[in-house]
Amino acid sequence: MIISVASGKGGTGKTTVATNMAISMKGECTLLDCDVEEPNVHLFLHPLIERSETVTTFIPEVVESRCTWCRKCADICRFRAIAVVGKKVLVFPELCHSCGGCQVVCPEQAIADGSRELGVVEWGTGAGVPVVQGRIRVGEAMAPPLIRKVRAAADSDGTVIIDAPPGTSCPVIAAMRGVDFVLMVTEPTPFGLHDLELAVGAVRLLDIPCGLVINRADMGDDRVRQYARREDLPILMEIPFDRRIAETYSRGGMIVEEMPEWKEKFKSLFRQIEGRVKATPRGRTAQ
Amino acid sequence: MKELVIVSGKGGTGKTSLTAAFSCLAGRHILCDADVDAADLHLLLAPEVVQRHDFMGGGKAVIDPERCNGCGQCRDLCRFEAIDGDFIVDPIACEGCGVCVDLCPAEAIDFPIQKCGEWFVSDTRMGPMVHARLGIAEENSGKLVSCIRREAQRLADEQDLEIIITDGPPGIGCPVIAAIGGATALLLVVEPTVSGLHDMSRLVDLARHFRVPCLLCINKFDLNLEMTQKLEDEARERKMQIVGRVPFDPLITEAMIAARSVIEYQHDSRIAVAVREIWHNIVASPAMNSLGIRIM
After folding, report:
1. Is the Cβ pair A15, B195 closer than 8 Å?
2. What CATH number is associated with residue B149?
3. Rg (CA), chain A
4. Domain assignment of residue A18, given as a range
5. Is B225 left (phi over 0), alpha (psi -120 to 50) or beta?
6. In this structure, are B242 and B98 located in the same domain?
7. How far does B137 lie from chain A, in Å, by closest CA?
8. Which of A67, A246, B78, B250 has a Cα at 20 to 30 A from A205?
């Protein structure tokens, strides 16, 4: 079973929910940090990194001695990542989407495999939880291929919890596709609701069952709850605003460790999700 | 003309609430909401849309079953595993590279251009605003950000406005890169948490890469004074100007629910006082005011 913890709006508590749920279910799950732009899981679980792998992606490397400047590479490239200027081929690595089209169409085999570093994937264990995390190289724009690498690193048989990035565009989709359940963490504010609606739109497009956690549940209004009722989204947990929780989070502490009464709540959250996944026919979402 | 881009690394630190508040204090300015994935500024400013434009992204492959002979070349070529065994293209997985389109021996693949979102020029009670809405699950957020920043710059030029205030996206990836290149300065809104510090540090690395100066403002500073100190130490070490601290106050949420900026909601609140001081410091900062002459 794979659960993706997502939100739309940033800073609603995805990492808090993902890490506390993972610790509460210690021994039963792996945690993936797919917020590769700003991975935060390690700040809470302090995993000891056992293995690290640099992830690269294909970019064209032009073998000038073979090139006849026929421009076929530049013609097929929809991303303007390769251009022929006079008798010179210019490659713009940061624009390349690694489709390999230039290599396929080059009649002279003048395009070799080059590479651009996307970032790293790291494996470790923290607080008894196996962790896989991705970290994008600063300056790299394309998060989805790295997110897919982090996803691929997980054992598909076991239970996996994914800490997803915020937003509703391609990085989030990469962190939600093919999972069994999306847990949306929101806050009952106008911004929280607005971004939740967008994120739920994405989840519906992917046809994945979904439930809510309302964080800072007493700071705001009732519109998120009304929306949940209207859309038939189950509210699986509410976390009130509590200065102790905010302070615990701020210094990298775990709520379930410092306020043990929360451990059962996070376990129950997990069990509810498990129950819902079991009740949903499998294989309805395309991988 | 200057452009201040408000960013944070970590999401949900108060970028949009502060952007709206600055908008009350700024002189002749234009607003730009560059968080096109999850734009929220309009919820505070109730923009009246004056112009609406479609944002067209690239094409997506569509295989015509009538023309397809099932040779499988497209599937072999596709590096994004977007074509299934029945030769149906998954539009979400399709990267829009068009390699299958160009190389299909049966010429059976169409490549219709997709509408990926919309962008708007609006009037608000604070002045003009350029904003956008990226379609759900769409790509090209960076392109859309570049598009609306260009439009904001054009309008600012045309109307002789002094400053563009841009509400930026979270993270350090594609839309952020598009939002900060060429800006006059970045205002980093950071909360005093371990994740706030970590994410700020990566964002500052990115800003350095693109040679944009950074100013730091700490939101909810009183939630953890020790972390606030750490953030300020790091800022000093990296030669970033600290422009102020905003206290934790549920008033921010109340103002949001009332669809007002904090300045409008309660102009003499301690938050409003803090925000005014921060805005003053931003305007007078060497990063925003390279002539070094204080604006009176």
Report:
1. yes
2. 3.40.50.300
3. 22
4. 2-46+127-278
5. alpha
6. no
7. 4
8. B78
Give pLDDT, residue A285. 46
Question: Could you tell me if A38 and A91 lie in one domain?
Answer: no
Q: Is the domain of B67 the same as that of B183?
A: no
Report if residue B51 sits inside a domain.
yes
Say which of A101, A141, A168 has its CB closest to residue B136: A168
Chain A residues whose CB is inside 8 A of the B212 CB are: none
Mean pLDDT for the stretch of residues B202-212: 96
Which chain B residues contact residue A191 at CB under 8 A?
A: 16, 40, 43, 256
Instruction: Mark yes or no for CB contact B195/A78 under 8 Å.
Output: no
Burial degree of B50 (CB within 10 A; 0-12, 13-18, 19+): exposed
* Contact indicator for B238, B212 with CB cutoff of 8 Å: no
In the prediction, which pLDDT does B137 show? 81
Instruction: Give per-residue pLDDT as tens, B60-101.
Output: 999 999 999 999 999 999 999 999 999 999 999 999 999 999
Inter-chain contact A78–B193, Cβ cutoff 8 Å? no
Q: How many domains does chain B have?
A: 2
User: What is this structure's pTM?
Assistant: 0.95
| B201 touches A: beta carbon within 8 Å | no
